[in-house]
Every structure is written in C-alpha cells, then in structure tokens.
Amino acid sequence: MISTYLKPLTEVDAARADHLAFIADLEKGGYAVTAGRIDPPTGGIILLDVDTEAEAQELIAADPYVRQGLATYTATGWHPTRGALAGYQRTRD
C-alpha cells in the first residue's frame, strides 16, 4: 500500500503515534512485513502480506490516517523474487 498525504505534514505528524500503533498491530497480526515513510515525506509504504487487494483495503481502512482524512492509499501487488525478501514466508496461518 502506497500512501499519499492529503494534509500538511504537521497535521499528519499529530496522528503519527496512533498510525504507528496501528502498524504495530498489523505486525503483531502477521500482516505488515515492513513499513516506512517516503523521502521526502509525502506519504509512505506499507508492505502487507495479504491474499487480495480487497483484504488490503479492508485492513488499511482502519488506519488513523485514513479515518482522519490525512492520507489515501493505493494498492500495488508485488511478489518478491530476488533480494532480502525472496522466499519470504508468511508468519500467520
């Protein structure tokens, strides 16, 4: 999921702690593989381990950034075949 901020960075940062807690919950559930802010900070990327775009959209709808109208997300499918994530194994059933 690739996000684009819709509000000034000061408004986004005011909700950042809640957003990071949301990401931590996704990690604990085995859904978030990695995440981080784009540089320059105009949005971010969350690499989700899901089976469908619908599942990704359902998960991301709970993001405080989305709920507060601070960001939108675009889904982009990807299957790593090389590098550090090649052979990645799902951590949940």
Automatic annotation (TrEMBL):
InterPro entries (UniProt xref): Dimeric_a/b-barrel, YCII
Signal sequence segment: none
YCII-related domain residues: 7-74
Domain of life: Bacteria
Family: Belongs to the YciI family.
PANTHER family reported in the protein's UniProt record: GSR2449 PROTEIN, YCII-RELATED DOMAIN-CONTAINING PROTEIN
Protein name, entry field: YciI family protein
Species assigned in the record: Actinoplanes sandaracinus
